[in-house]
Every structure is written in C-alpha cells, then in structure tokens.
From TrEMBL:
Residues 11-71 form the HTH tetR-type domain. It comes from Chryseobacterium muglaense. Residues 34-53 bind DNA. InterPro entries: Homeodomain-like_sf, HTH_TetR, Tet_transcr_reg_TetR-rel_C_sf, YxaF_TetR_C. Keywords: DNA-binding, Transcription, Transcription regulation. This is TetR/AcrR family transcriptional regulator. GO terms for molecular function: DNA binding. The lineage of its organism: Bacteria, Pseudomonadati, Bacteroidota, Flavobacteriia, Flavobacteriales.
Length: 193
C-alpha cells in the first residue's frame, strides 16, 4: 500500500513539474528559461527535478508531450462535438479551433512549433517530439478527408497542415485570426480539387 501511495505521489509531483515548466516555457521560451527559473517557480529542488528528468531537454520533451495530449484532445473533441455532416468540413474545423484560440487572446502560437524552431538541428529528441504532434494532427485531418472521399487524402492532409502551421505563425506575428481564416479558405480550395 505504501509503495502505491509513494508512486502516486511521485507521479503527481512529476505532473506538477511538467505543468509548471510548460507554463514557464510557453511564456518565456525554452532557451530563455533556465533550470533555476523552473526551480524557483515550482518550488522544487534541482535534485528533485533531475531525479524525474535527466536534463532540461528531458523536461522539455515531457512538456511537449503534455502539450500534445491536451491540444490533440481538445481539437479532437472540438471536431467530434460538431454538428457538421461533411467530413471535409470537419477536417477543416482545426482552423476554427485555432481562430477561437487566437480570438480569445492566446497569441503564443503552437508550443510544439515554438520548441521545434528553437531547437532546430540542435536536439533530435525534441524535434522528434514536435514532429509526433504535427503527424498526429495530420493523421486526424487525413482521416476525415478519407471519409470525405478526397483522392490522395494523405497528400492533401499534408498541405492542409502546412497551411495550418503557416496560419499559426502569421496569427502570432499579426496578433490576428485573419491569417487563419485565409488559410482555411485556401484549404477549402485544395480539398475541392
């Protein structure tokens, strides 16, 4: 019984560290956030941090995985709760989800894309974690496009995700959802060809 409680406590502490680090990284960036800042904000010791994560990069990967979990789940739920009948329309709801985020004031962009950009060609494991997130979104879009009988749905899904990623970057830079709406319009054209 004591071992179960101890494991649950460790797991809870680990989850708290991930959530705290996630918020700090999202706000300040990855390179700009040192381990000391994370320790100060979480109230844990460096020893405890390194006990759960072998390095700062290990913690970053855990935060990317956390982001993927919450974001992919939120996007999937958003689409599933839709009353739209056409699978292609449902696939393109990723843009509507993003529009709602930006319009509500979330202008920090995609956590995974931010990490990928900061660690491009510097940390393979971080890049791979980011790529898993993007690949999962692409597969989600592809599933709906396949249901909608879109020919070469894999290639079209890749194009839609490229528009989605571009919309994220432009909306972050312009602090506006207009690029997202324009990207959705372009995605509709691609899907209708």
């Amino acid at each position: 019984m004591e071992k179960k409680i101890d494991k649950a406590s460790k797991s809870q502490k680990r989850d708290e560290m991930i959530k705290s680090a996630y918020n700090i990284f999202y706000k300040n960036g990855f390179h700009a956030t040192g381990v000391d800042a994370i320790v100060d904000c979480t109230g844990i010791s460096k020893r405890t941090l390194y006990k759960h994560f072998t390095s700062k990069e290990g913690l970053i990967i855990a935060t990317i995985n956390y982001y993927h979990q919450i974001t992919y789940g939120a996007i999937s739920d958003y689409i599933e709760k839709s009353t739209l009948d056409q699978p292609v329309d449902r696939a393109l709801m990723i843009f509507d989800y993003l529009t709602a985020l930006v319009d509500s004031g979330n202008l920090d962009g995609c956590f995974a894309m931010n990490a990928r950009t900061e660690y491009a060609h510097k940390a393979k494991e971080i890049e791979e974690s980011c790529d898993i997130h993007v690949a999962a979104l692409q597969q989600l879009v592809e599933r709906y496009l396949t249901e909608g009988k879109i020919s070469d749905s894999k290639s079209v899904a890749m194009q839609v995700i490229m528009l989605f990623e571009g919309a994220i970057l432009r909306s972050k830079g312009t602090e506006s959802s207009l690029p997202i709406k324009l990207a959705k319009s372009a995605a509709k054209i691609i899907c209708s060809q």
